[in-house]
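Model it.
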Amino acid sequence: MMKQTRLSLSNFDYAASQQKHRRKNTIYKRAAEYSLECKADTLVAIQIRKTGEIYVFDSTGGRWLGALSRLDGCYPRPIPVTMEDIIPGI
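Modeled.
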């Protein structure tokens, strides 16, 4: 039987990756809460420099994303995040 090996990420790399992911999700959650509590439209875009990935949260359900047509030419394509993704059950 072969022993399972972990990916090449060290514990430090894994912890740093987790922390970045949590911070990104916290930013989105705060933007969603602000949108609900203050009755405001919010748009948050995060681009990961190392990979070029773009994550976009739009509280309007896509109205602002349509206005940001320059993101359509980006590679990799932007990853949209919705209110339902951040706060389930809304």
